[in-house]
Amino acid sequence: MTRTLRFPAAALALLCAAPPLARADAGDLRDLHLPLLPRTAAEAARIAAVTAPARDFSAPERFEAKPAGAATVRARPTADAFSDPSANIGLEGRMTFNLGNGLFTKAWVSAPSSTKASDGLGPLFNARACQLCHLKDGRGLPPATPDEDAIGLFLRLSVPGGPAPETALIPDWIATNPDPVYGGQLQNFSLAGIPAEGRMRIETTEIPLTFPDGEAIILHAPSYALADPGYGMPAPDLMLSPRVAQQMIGLGLLEAIPAAEILAHADPDDADGDGVSGRANIVVSARYGAPMLGRFGHKAGQPTIEEQSAGAFSGDMGLSTPLHPSGHGDCTADQSACIVAETGADPSDGLEVSQANLDLVTFYARNLGVPERRGAGDPEVLRGKEVFYSAGCISCHVPKYVTGRMEGKVAQSFQLIWPYTDLLLHDMGEGLADHRPEGRATGAEWRTAPLWGIGLTAQVSGRESYLHDGRATSLIEAVMWHGGEAQAARDAVYHLPKEDRDALVRFLGSL
Amino acid sequence: MRIQGMLGAPASLLALTVPAMAADRAAIVDTYADIAQAGYEDSLVLARDLQLAIDTLIAAPSQDTLDAARAAWRKARDPYMQTEVFRFGNPVVDDWEGKVNAWPLDEGLIDYVDASYFGAEENAQAQLNVIANPTFTLSGETVDATTITPALLSDVLQEAGENEANVATGYHAIEFLLWGQDLVSDAPGAGNRPWTDYAQGAGCTGGNCDRRAEYLKVATDLLVSDLAWMTAQWAEGGAARTAVSASADAGIAAILTGMGNLSYGEMAGQRVKLGLILNDPEEEHDCFSDNTPQSHYFDLKGVENVYLGRYTRTDGTEISGPSLKDALAEADGALAQTLADEIGQSLAAADALRTLASEGKSYDMLLQVGNAEGETAINAVVDALVTQSRSIERASTALGLAGVVVEGDETLEGTGEVFQ
Asked: Which among A271, A357, A375, B380 is most buried, taking Cβ atoms within 10 Å?
């Protein structure tokens, strides 16, 4: 891990003149989605000072209790804690937000139907509505029992190799392709008359773990398989990746961090020898047609909220948008009943979800507020914060940023935010590996998850469930799963006295 | 103009920005709290009338007793809708509101539904039908529902699976149990549940009439107890009254916040415009009873009540006192009158929907694709509400509350609240 600014803003500015689709060496990633104004020297100095890691743990840092700056919302004591709009989007913004919320909670139906504008579901799908996976705008949950259908958790599918146009554009791109029959993800629901693709079978092994002080916990190690395949045997080299739906808060602020300031934390070759690398995922933007920094998804496979949302409409619900214009979603040519099924395309634009409606959902997803901290000044919380820093967690869970200053009155502009992530890829070890590469991310790498709001998981989603597949049922369990680049930090926590371990969990719970 | 959300504005900030005003702001907030208390109390009284009517329906099921219960439900909605303006500015109300007015709902959770009903099959609870199933599995746990209790409804079924569509309590659950699904959206007519759904013994239709009656009884009792609780929060010393009265300026901000958010995002946006965007008759607030135009009208009446500091109780008596309009008139007399006129225009537009309904053009028909008259009538409500919301923003500036109701990067500067 190094703090050297490897991709200075000035260099980025020069590269802005480069033609689109130039080969994306990691330094020339542009924030094509942001109307960024350049940082002034005075601003840069203020930002460097305010984002420097804390040294004093006797009291909370200034502004710390408001993790999303002026966008921070009241921490409701109910399951609605993640459902308020950012505090600074105004009445008009709240109108747009509420319309987006209506679409986010809307249950889509099969075409044709009397509800012309909300039909087009499927033919294959994982859920009928966004909120059925993003529970109360929070994390999805894996099935509680082996016989319960998976909804908030699905399997991404791919096979290695094959032609991949990105290899010519993006260094270290790992070529993969969707399964030739099952496509890019397993949809375990389908419209009447069309076979579903199958079920996700989960087998969980319990692994006891005892801390040096004698406290014992159980780690739950799931393994995944495709059961009851509806379209014959999948490819022999099929790769599966379980993915739980992510929490929705603060996404617009993560989108507004200048790429250069994310890349400043990257150390792909571990030049500083601290055992922590941090690599950027880079993907070709469907919107801008150029390589961009990947920010969203468990392997940072999407550059913007709009593209993440459009991908979810298509892959999870089988709904077309301008970015994914097929009304058949993830159907492949070998899924004959699916590929000929009626779609809900509107005659005016040939789409099931218009650009206007995609914009509403994108606005909604960009503006779900981050609740204020609870107990940031509590002595045990502060002790836990110190443990978090000293164990090395902040090497990847980078505490704070200042979002870019943007033209126009943009709610995400120039906010001091505390997401506790570097948005970069890290090798997390064999225990968490899915062995399924995505873009530049290897089968062992995952994007650092933001930690803001993590203490409200059970309150919002109904029970504790963490990591990319929701396997961890407590925060300490989640920490103990960390391996690879995070092994040293995990080991440091493992050897802590119990009161410090508890303080760490208390700190995480206050986020 | 940018506006920021205004929940929980710090009093220290207000002290910096508010000029001295002659109008007694504390008295204005008192009027507001008095209207809230009276509104929730009226809602409680009429919910108790509904409770009596439902007890009668259950004891002696007939078309007459079902009709009487439906009429009592409609009456009970009128004062409740006028209290919605207390949302958004008052955390006590916001954290409670979902129990009594959550919407829309997957009604298959509660009772039988039409075979063509597309309750999401992957919403494991959408076809749960607790009335027909005394035991069922929820998130891997077996639930014993042999006796339908308040705890079963509010702790187990409400938002089961963390799904907002799983609404088990409140006005809309009761509405569904009285009317049933409204399966007709291209002709007048609300839900048409037969009274025999409550007939005990051989005459029972729909199955499980005993459990249906039990569910209806428990849901109604819960509504009454929830409204009693909220009424107490607005009484002297109650948590909601205490909170809003703590600082007169924060109280004024809460009034404007509720008016603005209810007018704009909630009513104009989610409840009215969304239905047009989707052309979906399901996007109707009181969809089982087709009471939507009436509930929209009284929702907006609530905005007028708090603005004018005047509320006509269900028994005809009037609560009135120093009003927000008085304070605004001192700051900007023209704006004070403009806002009053605009609220009146919103009410007139909502009233036009009531007139259409009385002519046999129900709200779900207005939402049909290609119904130009419906689109015009509904858009008139949206437009009037947007206009009125702009004036609410201007009012907040005129009252010196720019940092609270209207976006205030500048106002926040130097307060130490957020990095600038």
From this structure: A357
Looking at residue A370, its amino acid is V
> Are A458 and A79 a contacting pair, CB within 8 Å?
no
Check CB contact of B268 with chain A, cutoff 8 Å.
yes
Of B37, B215, B52, B203, the residue nearest B130 (C-alpha): B215
Task: Render pLDDT for A19-55 as a digit per residue (tens, 0 to 9).
Answer: 444 455 555 789 999 999 999 999 999 999 999 999 9
Q: Phi then psi for A403, rounded to 5 degrees? A: -65, 160
Cα(A413)–Cα(A402) distance, rounded to whole angstroms?
9
Q: Is B312 helix (H, G, I), strand (E, B) or coil?
A: strand
Query: Which residues on A lie below 8 Å from B124 (Cβ)?
Result: 148-149
Over residues A357-405, the pLDDT tens digits come to: 999 999 999 999 999 999 999 999 999 999 999 999 999 999 999 999 9
Here the tokens at position A390 are: 């000293």
CA-CA-CA-CA dihedral for A491, A492, A493, A497, to nearest 10: 120
Q: By CA distance, what is B164's nearest residue in A?
A: A136
E strands, A191-278, in order? 199-210, 216-227, 239-244
> CB-based contact (8 Å) between A204 and chain B?
no
Look at chain B and count its residues: 420
**Residues B305, B85: contact at Cβ < 8 Å?**
yes
Q: Are A94 and A364 in contact (CB under 8 A)?
A: no
pTM above 0.80, yes or no: yes
What stretch of H or E contains A388?
helix A379-390
Q: Give, as one character, the DSSP assignment of residue B251.
A: H
Which pLDDT score is estimated for B266?
Answer: 87
Residue B20: which pLDDT band, with cuts at 50, 70 and 90? very low
